[in-house]
Amino acid sequence: MEYLGKLIEVGQWISNCCSLNKKMHKLKRKLEDLNGREVDIVQELEYAESLSLKKRKKEVDNWLASVARKKDEVRVIEKAVEQDRLLFTRVQLVKCVEDLTGEVTELLERGKFSEGLSLDTLEMREDALLTTKLVGQTFHENMDKIRKWLMKDEFLTIGIFGMGGVGKTTLVMHIHNQLLKESSTFGNVYWVTVSKDFSIHKLQSDIAKMVCLDLSNEDDEKKRAAKLAQALMRRKKYVLILDDVWNHFLWDKVGIPFRATGCKLILTTRSLDVCRRLGCEVNMKLEPLSEEEAWRLFKETLGHSITLPCEVEYVARSIAKECAGLPLGIITMAGSMKGVDDICEWRNALERLKQSKSGQNDMESDVYQVLQVSYRNLNDSNVQQCFLYCALYPEDYKIEREELIERFIDEGLIERMNDRQTEFDRGQTILNKLENACLLEGVMNNFPHDNKCVKMHDLVRDMALQIANSNSRFMVRAGVGLKGLPDEEKWTPNLEKVSLMCNKISEIPPSASPNCPRLSTLMFQYNGLKRIPDCFFVHMRELKVLELSYTGIEKLPNSISNLENLSALLLRECSMLQYVPSLTKLTALRRLDLRNSGIKEVPQGMEMLVNLRYLDLRVPTLNMLPVGVLPKLSNLQYLIIYGLSKTLKVKGDEVASLTKLETFSGQFYDIYNFNTYVKSLEEGGPSKYLLQVGLDNPYFSPVESGSFDKSVILKSCSISKSNEGEECLVLPTDVQYLYIQECHDFRSLCDISSGKAATDLKTLVINNCEGMHSVLSSSSSCCIPLQCLRSLRLAFLQNLHVLIARGLAESPPVQPDTFSRLKEFRIYNCPNIKTLFFPQLLKHFRNLEELHIEDCGQMVEIIAAPSDEDEEDIYREIENGVIMNCLPRLRVLQLWNLSELRSICTNGVIVCDSLRDLAVRYCSKLKRIPLLDRQPSPPPSLQIIKAFPKEWWDSLEWEHPNAKNVLQPFCQFSRYLNFLSELVAKIIDIISTLIARYSKYDKKTEENMKILKGILGELNNRKEEIDQKIYAEHLSGTQEKEEVRNWLNNVQSINSDIRSIEEELGRKKYLSCEAVGKLVDEKIIQAQELLEKGSSHTRIFDKKHFKYVILGGGVAAGYAAREFNRQGLLPGELAIISKEAVAPYERPALSKAYLFPNEPARLPGFHVCVGSGGERLLPEWYKEKGIELILGTEIVKADLASKTLTSASGKIYTYQFLIIATGSTAVKLTDFGVQGADAKNIFYLREISDADKLVETIKTKQKGKAVVIGGGYIGLEVGAAMRINEFDVSMVYPEPWCMARLFTPAIASFYEGYYANKGVKIIKGTVAVGFEADSNGQVKTVKLKNGEVLQADIVVVGVGGSPVTALFKGQVEEEKGGIKTDGFFRTSVQEVYAVGDVATFPMKLYSDMRRVEHVDHARKSAQQAVKAIKASEGGKSIQEYDYLPFFYSRFFDLSWVFYGDNVGEPVLFQDIQDNSTTRPSSTKPKFGTYWIHNGKVVGAFLEGGTAEENKGIAKIARLQPEAKKDQLEKIGMLIAGLYGSDRPLSCSII
Ligand SMILES: Cc1cc2nc3c(=O)[nH]c(=O)nc-3n(C[C@H](O)[C@H](O)[C@H](O)COP(=O)(O)OP(=O)(O)OC[C@H]3O[C@@H](n4cnc5c(N)ncnc54)[C@H](O)[C@@H]3O)c2cc1C
C-alpha cells in the first residue's frame, strides 16, 4: 500500500511537472501574441498621432501599461519556474500560470480596440522640445534638400555633419517626423541615438529594439548581425536614422544592409571623416546661424509676445551675437534670460559672457561659456545642484522625472516637507525651471509606458561635468562600457558623487577600499556586479545614497551596517540578493527599496528604521513580515508589501497605526483585519491603496494598478452579514475597483450593507461565487450604489439567475441611475441565467457600449418580452405600434456558445444604431438578428460581423429582403474553428501520450517525433494556406499584419528547431536522449499552440470601409467632393484616395504659372475649385466636413466584384459606391524604347511632384538650353515658360504644324511666328530618336531623326497622355480607350462611376461616344456623377449629361479658348477694325476660326477675345446656327460679341 501511495505521489508530481511546463509554454505563446498586438498598436498609434493630429485614448494607454506590467509578472513567474525554487508548491505555480494565462488572454481580447486607438483632437501636437524648433531659412532649405535626396534612388546613405550644438539632431528630428507622415513613400522610420559609448553590440540591440527583434538570447556578434539584417531586409522600405555617431564601423558587422534597395540611412556626426568612412553618398555640413537668424531664434525663445525696450534690445542682440550662431547656445542663453526686464541684469549677463569667453576663440568652447552663464543665471544653488545631479546619468539617457525627483529627495536636494506630494510638487517645479532655462530637454519615453523624462544635451552635460569636476567632486563613468572599477588613483578623497551606472562591472577586487570620506552618493545600478568586498565601504562613512538596483548582487557586505548616515538604500530588481546585513544602526535611512529582490526574510533590525518614509517590499520570495515591525515605522508615507507567498500578510491595526501613509498596498491576514483597517480610514487615509484579502498569490493581483487608485480585492472570505446580523465586510467609502472571488456565502450586492456609501465604484468583478443569485435585488434598499459603475464583469456564477431580483410587487424599483454609466458588461460561464434584461431594466443601460455574453448554457433570450405591468412603462418607445428596445450606444455585441439562445429580443425590435462589431458563434438556435434585419442598409457604424458556423448564418431569417445582401460584405466566417474541432480528438490523443511519456523520456522519443511531425505537417499546411494568400496579395503589394508575420516566423523557426532535433537524434551525440525527448515534448506543445493560433488568423490584412470612395485625387475628385457636400454628406462617409501627397488642385496650373520665375503659383493658392471661380478647398475643409483625404496612397489592386481596393502599403478599403477619377498619365519616351530616354533631367509633367522636380532643375541650370519635345498644349505652354525662365529653347514635333489636332495651319502659323519672335527655335516634322548623357547621367544632347543634334540641359516631354484604367481591365466595359459610361457616368458595374479623363461617355450634342481630356469636363462630369448617385439613393432622377466641349490655353501674353467640334471647313476671321491683329508681331493679337459642318457652325476658336466674345462663341458652338463662309469671314468677331451680349439677335445676321 505504501508503495502504491508513493507511486501515486510520484505520478501526481510528474503530472504537475507536465502540466506546469505545458501551461508555461501556453503562457509564453499567449504572451508572444500579446507582444505582436502591442507592436501593431504602438506602430498604428505613432502613425495616427504623427499624421493627423490625433491623440491616443486613455484606455489604450492603460492597456499598454497593463501589458508592460503583465510582461513583468510573466518574467517573474518564468524565473520561479526555471529556478524551481520550490518556494511554493508546483500546484501553486500551476495555478499562478493559469491565472496569468487568463489575464494575458483577456488583455489580448481587450487589445482589439474595435473603436479605434485614437481620438481626434484639435490641439496641435506640440513639439516637446524648444530645441526642436527649426529656425532659419537655411534649416528649411536643408530639410528640403535632404527630403529630395531621400526621394532619389541613388542616394542611400546621407551624412550630416557639423559641430556640437549646431542643430544636427534637431534637423534630423524634423526629418524623422516628416518621414513618419509619408510612410507610404518611405516606409518605416527608425531612430537610434548612437553616442560616444558606441559598441557594435549596443547598436545592434538598439536597432533590434526598434524593429521588435529580440536579440537578448544571442551573444554571438555575427549571428546577431545576420538576424538583424534579415529582420531589416524583411521591411521592404525604411529609413534608419543614426544620431550622434562618433566612430566609424562596418555596416555588415552591425547587420545593417548597406546600399540595399529600399533602405535609406541618415547619420549625424561631428566629423566629416566619419561620414566619408561610412560611405555616405552625400554629405551636408550644418553651418551656424547667420546673425539675423540667431537674433530671431533668441527672440522666439524669449517669447514671441515680448517687446524689448530699445536699450535692452541692443544688449540682447549683442548677447545673441556672442552665442556664435549655435542654436544650442542661443536657446540656452535666451532661456536663462526669460522674464528679465532690468537693463542692468542684461548688461551684467553680456559682461559675464564676454569675460567668460575672453581668450577663447574656437566656437565649441564659446558655446560652453554661454552654457555656463545660463547655469549661473539659475541663481538658486538648490536648482543648480539638481541640474548637476543629472550629469550623473549616462549621455543621452532619458531620466524619468518621477525617479529623478525621488533621487532629489534622497539626496536632500529637496527640503524635507510634511508629505511626499508636496515634495514631489517642489521637484516638478525644479525640473520645469531647468527645462524652461533650456538646460534640460523634456522628452517622452513612450514605450512601454508613457513616461515623462528629461534629457541633457551632450554639450550641456559636458559643461555640467566640467563645473562639477572643478573641485574633483564628481567621478562620472556612466554608460561607458567599464568592465572593472576605475583605477585606485581616481578615487580621490574629495569625491562627493560617483556614478558607475550602466556598465559591465561584474567584480570588485577583494582588496578595493577607496578612501573617499566625503563620498555621499554611489551609483552602481545596471551592472552585472555579484559581490562587494567587506572593506569596500569602510572609508565611506558619509555615504548617503547607495544605489545598487538592477545588479546581480547576492550578498551585501557587512560593512553596510556601519553606514550610519545612509538615507537611501536602493536594491530594486536585485533578484539574486539573498542576504542583507543588520540595519540596526541605519536609523537615518529614509528609503529602502527591495522591490523584486531575492530576500526571503526582512533584514535584521528593520524595526529600528524609525525615520523610514519609503519601503518597497514587493518581494516575490519574501515569506513574512514579523508582527510588531510596522508600528515602529511610524513615519512611513509609502508602503508596498506583497509577494508570492501566502504568509506575507499585514495586520489591520498595524497598518492603521501608520497615519502618514499616502500610498499603501498589501494583503491582510483576514477579513477581520481588513475591516479594522477600513474602519480606521474614516479619519483619512492614503490617496492610493490596494487592499487585498485571501489571495493565494497577491503578487499577481488582478487589479489594474494603472487605472485605479483605490482598489479592493477579496477572495475566499465570508462577506455576508452573519446570522446575528453582524457586518462581515466593511467597504471603504471611496473604493473605485472591487473584485470579489470565491466568496460563496454572498448572494447579491445587497448583502454588503456597508457598501451603501461606496458611491464612487467604477469597476466591479464578481468571479466564482456559488451563492450569488442576483447582482442586485429591487426589494432591498441597502445595496452598493452603482451609478458610477463603468465596467461590470460576472464570471463562473453557478447560481446566478437574474441581474436584478424582483421583490414583492410593492417593493421599490432599483435606484434610477443604477448602471446609467455602465459602458462594458461581460458575463461568462453563468449556466443558469435564462434572460439577461427585462424590458423595464433596459433603460438603465442606456450608455452600454460593450456587451459580451459567453458560455451561458441556459440563456434563452437577451431581452425578455414585456410583461403586462411593463406595458405601462414610460421609458420604452413605441413606433408604429412596434416596441423599440434601445441600446443607443452599443458598439460591440459578442454572443458565444449560447446553445439555448433563441432570441435577442423576444418582442418588438432592438435598436442599436452605434453597432460596430457583432460576433455570434455557436448560437445555433438563434434564428434572427433583429438589430440588423429591418433596414435596407447596415447600421452606419457597422464594421464587422463575425459569424460561425457559416451554415448558421445562411439559415437566418431576415425581415427586410435586402438585409442579408447588404450585411454580407461585413461578414467573416471563421472556418478554422471547424478544422480545429476536427483536431481536438487528435490533440487529446497527443496529450494522453504526452502524460504517459513524461515518465519515460528516453524510450518514446522517436514515437513522439512522429507525432510531432504529424502536427508539423498540419501546421505547415496552414502556413502554406496563409503564405499563398499573402503571396497573392503581395503581388499587388498588400501587407499582412505584424501578428501574422510573427506567426509565420515562429512556424519557420519551429521547423528549423525540429530539423536540428532530428539531426541530434541522428547523431545521438551532444544531447542526452532525455534532453532530446524533453525538447520534442516542448516542441509538440509549441506546435499545437501555433496551430491553434494560426487558425485564428482569419484577418490577415487591414481594412477600412467608406460609403463613397473617390479613387484619384485630382480635379474631378475635388469637384465631386464639393458636390457631395452640397448634396448632403455625413462625416466619415466619403474618402478620397490619391497617389499624390496633396489635396485636389487645379492641374492646368502646373504647365503655366507654376513654372514662372517670378511670383510662381504655389499651393495652397490653386486648390480646387478656384479654377472655376469657386471656393478654395483647403485640406482643412475636407477635415471639417468629415471627408477623409487618404493621400500619398497608391491603389494597386481594385476588385470591383468584392468592392475592394488595395493600396501599395497593403491597406484595404471597401466601399459601397466607387467613383473612378484616376485621370491620365503622361506617355513616356522610355515606353517606345528611345535610346537614353532614362537620362537625368528629362521631365514629364503630370503631377505636382513632376513640376517640383522641373522647378528645382530650372534653378540649377539657369539660362541653360532646353529642348521641348511635343507640339501640343503642354509643349507650347512649357516652351513658353522655359523661355520666360531665360532658357535657350528648341521645340521639336513631328507634325507639320503645332497643336495639329485642333489648330488649322493658319492658326498654327500665327503661334509659330509668335514663338519664333520670342526666340524659340521650332523644328518640325521630326522626332527625338536618342539622348546622350554626361558622366553624371544628366542629359547632354538630343539626337533627332533628321540627323540634327541639339545641346540640352533640360528636356521636357509632352507627347500626350493615356487614361489610367489598367486597374479595372476586364472588370468593366471599355470604349475608345476609356471606361464606358452612360450620361450619368455609371459604368457597366453597379455602383461604380467613372469621371474626368478616364470616362468615355455619350456626347449628346454629337450623338457619339467620346473621351475628353479637358479640365472643364473633369469638373462637370464629377458633379454630374455625384448628383446621379445622390438621386439614385433618393429614388429620384436627373437630366442626362449634355456637354459642350471646351478647352483653353495660355502662354506668353496669349490666351485662347475653343468650344464645340473642329470638324468641317475652317473659316478664319479677325477684328474688323484692325487687320494687323493676326500677325505674330501684333501687340494685341486677336483672331478666330469657325468650323462649318453641313452648313452649320459647329466649332469656334478665339484668341484674345473679350469675356463677352468668348461667351458668344460658346453659345454659337452650342446652338449651331446656319452660316455662310464669306459672312463669317467678315463679321465673325462681331457675331461673337453679339451672341455673347445676351441681346436678342435678328436671324438675318447668320
Ligand atoms: C500639365 C497639364 C496642363 C493642363 N492644362 C490644361 C488646360 O490648360 N486646359 C484644360 O482644359 N485641360 C488641361 N489639362 C488637362 C486637365 O488637367 C485634365 O483633363 C484634368 O486634370 C483631368 O482630371 P481628372 O480628375 O480626371 O484627373 P487628374 O486631375 O489627372 O487626377 C487623377 C488623380 O488620380 C490619381 N491616381 C491615378 N491613379 C491612381 C491610383 N492607382 N491610386 C491613387 N491615385 C491615383 C493621380 O495621382 C491624380 O491625382 C492639363 C493637364 C496637365 C497635366
Automatic annotation (TrEMBL):
Entry superkingdom: Eukaryota
GO MF terms, alphabetically ordered: ADP binding; monodehydroascorbate reductase (NADH) activity
Q: Which SMART domains match?
A: AAA (SM00382), LRR_TYP (SM00369)
GO CC aspect terms:
cytoplasm
Task: Kindly give the SUPFAM superfamilies that the UniProt entry links to this protein.
Answer: FAD/NAD(P)-binding domain, FAD/NAD-linked reductases, dimerisation (C-terminal) domain, L domain-like, P-loop containing nucleoside triphosphate hydrolases
Tell me the Gene3D superfamilies matching this sequence: 3.30.390.30, FAD/NAD(P)-binding domain, Helical domain of apoptotic protease-activating factors, P-loop containing nucleotide triphosphate hydrolases, Ribonuclease Inhibitor
A GO biological process of this protein is: defense response
List the CDD domains hit by this protein, alphabetically: ABC_ATPase
Q: Which reaction does it catalyse?
A: 2 monodehydro-L-ascorbate radical + NADH + H(+) = 2 L-ascorbate + NAD(+)
Q: Which UniProt keywords apply?
A: FAD, Flavoprotein, Leucine-rich repeat, NAD, NADP, Oxidoreductase, Plant defense, Redox-active center, Repeat
Q: Which cofactor does it need?
A: FAD
Q: What's the Enzyme Commission number for this chain?
A: 1.6.5.4
Q: Which residues form the AAA+ ATPase domain?
A: 154-288
Please report which protein family the annotation says this sequence is part of.
Answer: Belongs to the FAD-dependent oxidoreductase family.
Q: What does the protein in this record do? A: Catalyzes the conversion of monodehydroascorbate to ascorbate, oxidizing NADH in the process.
Q: What is this protein called?
A: monodehydroascorbate reductase (NADH)
